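Researcher: Checking consistency across runs. Here is Cation-transporting P-type ATPase C-terminal domain-containing protein again:
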Amino acid sequence: MESSRREYVPISWKEARHRLKGCLERRLAQSHVRDESYQPDRIHESPRSVRWWVDMNLDIYIGAFGASLAILAIGIFGYLYGPVEEDSRLSQLVASVILFSGFVVNLWVIRRRKFSTSKGSDNLKRREISRFLKALDKQEDEAMGYPTEEKSDDGLNIQGSSFNDIHWVYRFRSTLDGAVSGGSWGRIPSLLLVHGDHIAMQIGDTAPANCRLIENGQVIGAGERITLDTFGEGTASVLGTLPRGRSTLNNDSDHLLTLCNNMRIFVVLDTPLETFLLQRNVRSRQPQVARQLLTIRGRLAIVGVVVFIATSAVLIGRYDKSQNLYSTISLPFLASIGLFPFVGTMCVVCMEAIGTARILASYHPVAIRRDEILPESFVDTHMLVFRYFIATILNRLSLNDIFLKIGCKLSHLCHPLLAGVGGAIRASALVRVPPASLNLLEKLGVATAFTLVDDELVCEPHAIPQQLLIPSEKGLKLLDLCPNYESDSDSDENETSTDLRKEKDGEWNDSDSESGSGLENHHHYIRSRRKRRRLLRKARTKKSGRSFDADDDSSSSSSDDRDNEVQFEDPLWWQHLPSLKCIGLACMLIDENDCTFSDGAGTSLDARSGSLDALKADLVRLICAEQRRMQLRSLARCIGFSTKETIEGERGDISPFSEKERMHVVSTARLTESLQIDSHEIGSEESRCWGYLRPASTSVIVQDTRTGSYQLLTVGDPRMVTRMCPQAWQGENATILPLSAHDRSTILETSKGWKLGDLDSTAFSYSPIPPNFARRLLDSDPSSRKFYLLDNDPIESILPVVRSKIAIESEWPQLFNQIFLGVLGSPVIPRQETEGLLSTLQDAGVRFVYFSPRNMRLTKEIASQMGIDVAWNCAISLRPLDQGKEDPHRMVSNYADWDVNAKLPHGIDSVRQHLQEVDNVPLLVSLFTDVTKETTKEMVRTFQDYNDTVITVGLAHLPRNSRIFSTADLAVGIDVLTDSFKKTPSMQCNYNALLPSEIDFVAAISGHLCAFQLRGVASLAYMPTILAHGRASLEAATGSALYLIFGYLSFAFYIFCSVCSVSTTLPSIPIIWAVFYLQLLLPLIGLPISLSDPGSSSMDRVPPKNDPTITFGKKEGKALSWHGIHKSIPPAVLPQLIYLICFGEFMIQLEPVLLDSACAPNLSTGDWFKVIRCTGLRGYSGDARVYASAVSFSTFVICTTVTSAAFIHRTKSIFDERPWSKNYVWVTLYLLVIALAVLFVYLVAQDAEISSLPWYCFLLYGIMPFICLFWVELLKGKDGSLLDRAEKLRRLQFETRLGMWSPK
C-alpha cells in the first residue's frame, strides 16, 4: 500500500533528468543497429550476365583490381628486367605503384561509404544523444550555481496541448543543497517525459505513453485517444457531477476541470523516448539517378572488356620480335582500367559531396544555431561550401570523430592560417550533414511532390476580422473587412453589405458554385485569390537572446496589432459608428486583461504530501488563463481605437475606463459538444485554445472615470450572447429595438455557417448599470472580482428580463437584459511564408499537397486563400466511410452531375482501389482532409507507389511525425520550440525548468531522419531556394559525371587507336602519362563542373517520376550510350594524325642516318608520310617516337579539356548558356590544364625543334579541340531535343486535372 501511494507522488526535475539520462546511456551502451532504410543498389536494365557482374562487384575485384595489379607487375618486371636503354624504368615503377595505390584507396572509399550508408541513421542517433548528454551536464552545472526561484517557469512561450505533443506536467523543484521543495505545472514536450511524471489530459487528447489514471488506476495505452468510452462514461454522467441550473463556481473549483473537457491527472508508466529510439526506419527507395549510374557502370564494364580484348588482339596481330614488348604490354590494361571502377568511385563520392555541400550551404542561413557566431573569414559562400564539402566527405567515410579531434588540435596549437583549416574541419558551427542513406542530392533535384503535414506550418497563429453583422434600420447588415493595403486597386469587387432581412430564407450551403442564388445568403463571403490582398506584416523574426518579460510582451503585442490591420470595404461604414464604438470598446477592454497563455508558474505545494487536491487546484489556475484574441484588437483598431499614450493616460483611448468585475459564463451546452466532437471537426481557433477553459462568454463591468457611470460589456459565443439580449442597438439612428425572433435565428444560422467554414464567431453586447451599483465593488481583493458562472440549462432558454439592477447581490442577474451589438466572423489566414510557395512549385513541376486534420468544410476557406482549387476534384477525405454513407462535411456543389460523376474516394483503401480501377485523379489532388498521422504516412507511401519523389515538411519536435519522415523520400523538420524558448536577460539557466539543450535535443532526435532542420516557420519561405539549389547541384553533378565518362571512354579509345595506328611504329603511352591523366587532369576538370550555376530554365522543368521499372526515359538510355561513344571518338582519333605528322618530322630532324639506311635517302621536311610506313622502323623506340607521342597526348588532353565546356549544361548550347559565366572555378582550372598540356610538350620534347614542324601541324593542333567541341555540341543538340520532348510530355501530364487514364 505504501509503495502504491509512493507511485503517485510527483517527481522532481532532478529525478526526471536522472531517469532520462539513464535511458539514453543504456541506448548508447547497446550495439550498433543496421540501418533498415539502407538498401544495396541493384542494376535492372541490363542483361542478366551484366547484372550479375555488377551486383557481385566483379568489375571492381576482377576488372579494376586485375588491371591495376597487372600494371604493377609490369612496372616491377620492367624495373628489374627491362632493357638497359630504358632510362624511365624507375618512373614507370613509381607510376604503377601510384596507379595501384589509387585502386586501393578507391576500394577503401567504397567500403567506408558502404559502412557509413548502412550505419548512418544509427550513428546519427548516437551522435545526437552524446551531444545532448554533454550539453545537459554542462548546463546542469551552470544552472545549479544560481539560486532556486519560488516560481519556476517552464521556459516555453508556446501553447501546450496533445495536438503538438506538449503536455502539462507537474514536477517538484530541487534546491541548491539537493533537497526537494514545492512544485508547479509546466509544459514539456512528450519526448522529455519519464516514467513517474504527472500529466494532465482531457477528453480528445492522445496519450504520449502508457498512463494510469490516478483516481481509479485505469491504464491507457500509448497513442490511444481519450474519449468518454475510455472511462466507461457518458455525457449525462459527466454533466451529472455539475450543479444544476445557473450557479457561481469558486475560482479553484474542481468543476472547472470537468468543464474543460473533463480534464484529469495521469501518471506516466514508461519513458516515451525509450520507445521512440527503438523504432525501425522504413526501407528507402532507390533513386533513379542511382539506377542510371549502375546501368552506366555495367555498360562501361562491357566496353572495358571489349576494349581490352580488341587492344590485345591488335597487339598480338602486330607483334614483331624487333618491338620492345615492355613498352606495349601495358596498353590493354591501361585502355580498360579507366572503364572499370578504378578512380571513378572516388570521383562520384566527391561529386556527391560537392553537390551536398552546395545544398547545405544554401540552407545554412535558416538552419544555423543563432547562439554560435561564425568567424568573419567563414562568412564567404565559397569558404562555406568548402567547409561543408570537407564535412560531407568525412561523414561519407565515417571519419568525423577522428578529424574532429585533429581539427580541434589544429585550431589550438597551429598557426592562425592552419587554424583556419582546423576550423574548416571542425563542424561545430555547421549544420548536421544528412546521412548518405538519404540520397539528398539524388532526390532533392527530382522531387515531384511537396507535402505539408502540420497545420502550424500553414495557418497563422491567430484569426483576422472578415465580416461584421450588425443591426441596422433595414435589418441585419453585413460589413466586410479586408486587409489594410497601401494601394487600393481592386475596386471592381466591392460587395460591402448584405441585407439579410430582405433575402428569402434558405438552408446554409457551402457551395462551390459562383451563383448568386438565395441559397448562399448566410455563406461567408470568400474573396477571389487574385483579388484578396495579403496583410502587410513585418517580418517577425525573433533575435537571439531576446527577453520575454512583460515589456517585451507589450511591445510584441502592439507590433502584432500593427501587422494585422484591417479596414472596412464599405466607404459609408462610419454611419454605424455609434454601435461600432461600443463594439470596439468591448474588444479593447475584454482583451486588455492578462490575455497571454499562462507561464506555467503555479502555487508551491508541499513536496512531502503531493496532494491530488492541491495539484488539481493549481491546474485549475492554469486552464483558466485567458487567451489573447488578436482579431478583437484588429477590429478595435479598424474602428479607430488606439493604445498609444494620450493626455488621458498610458492606455490610450481606454485610459478613462477602469475594470471592476470580470465574469466568465461556462455553458454545459458547449461542454456537451466538446465531449462528443470528432477530432476532425475541431476548428483552428478551438485547437489553439485546446487544453484551456473556453467560456461561452466573458463580461466586464467598467467605470468611466470621467462621468462615474458603469457599463457592462460582453463578448462571447453568439448562442450565449443572444440569450442575454432581448434588445438590439441600431447605430444608424441611435435606436434600441427588440431583437426579433427572425433576427435572432438569422444571427445563429450565420454563426453556424461561419463555424462550419472554420470562422471564429464572436458576438457583442452591452448594458448600462446604475452608479449605486458601486457598493458591490467595495471589496479590495482583486481576485474576488473574477467569477465563473455555470449555465447548466439543457433547454438553453432566453435569460429572463430584470427590471432593475440596483439591488442585485448575485452575479447572474447582472448579465440579464443586455443590448445586442453585432457578431464578428474571423477566419484564420495562411501564413505569409506560403504566399509564393504554391506558384513556385507549380512552375517547377512539383505537386503541392496539404494534409489537413480537419474536415473538408473547415479546410475549404484556408485552402482557397492559399491558392488551392476548391471547386473541381478539389479534395479527398482520408477518413474511412462506410458503403453508401454520406459525409456531412463534404464539399458540395450546384453543378448538376458533380456529385454523381466526380465524387472522389473516401479513405486510404478507397483511394488505392480508385487508382487501380478508375484513374489517377487522387494523385492530382492538392488537398487531403480528415487525416491522421497514420493515414498521412499511408498516403505518402501511395504517392511513392505511383513513382512520386515526395518531400515532407512537418514540425521537427513531434515524434508522431517520425514515421512520416521515415516514409518520405526526403523530410524537412521545422523547429518551432527554439524560438519559443524563453531566455532571461542574464542568459542564465533555470534548473527547475527546461534547459536550452533539452529543447534542441527534442527537435534533433525527433527529426533525426530529416534532411533539413529549419528554424522557425518563417524559414519555410526559403524552401524554393533550397529546391532550386538542389536542382542546380544535381544538374551540375550530372554534367560532371557525363564528362568523366566521356574522358574515360576517350582515353580507352585513344589507346586503342594508338595501337591501330597506320604507322609502323606505335605511339608510346607510358604508365606515368596514364596516371597523370586519369588521376589528376581528368578529375581536375571534371569535378569543378559540379560547381556550375544552373541554367535559366532549371526551375521551369518538370522532373521525371521515380519509376523503379524505368531507368532511362524513352530512347534516352540508348541515345546516352551511343552518343557517349560517338562523342569520345574524335578526341581519340584526331590526335593520331598529329602523331603521324610529328613522328615523321621528328625522325627527319633527329634520325636522318637511320632513315637513310632503313627507309629512303634524302628525305626533307614535309616527307613525313614516307616515314610512317617504313617497315625498318617497326622496332624503333627512340626520342622521335617519345616526342611525337608527347605532342599527340598533349593534343588529346587539350581536346578533352576544351570539350568539357559542352558538359556545363546538358541540353543548352554554349552560345545560349555561356559556360565561362557559370563556373569560375572550372574556367580557372580549364586554362590551367591547357597551359600544363602545352608546357608538357616543351618539357618532354625540349631537344626537338618544335618550331620546325609544318605550319598545318600547328593549325591542326589549334583547331582539333574546337572540332571535338563542335562535334559534342552537335550530338548534345540531339540529346537536348530528346530530353526536351520528354519534359514537355511531363509538363502536359503535370498540368492536367484529369487522370491519364480517366475514365476507365
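Researcher: Does this match what you'd expect to see?
Model: One thing to look at in this run: The first helix runs from residue 2 to 7.
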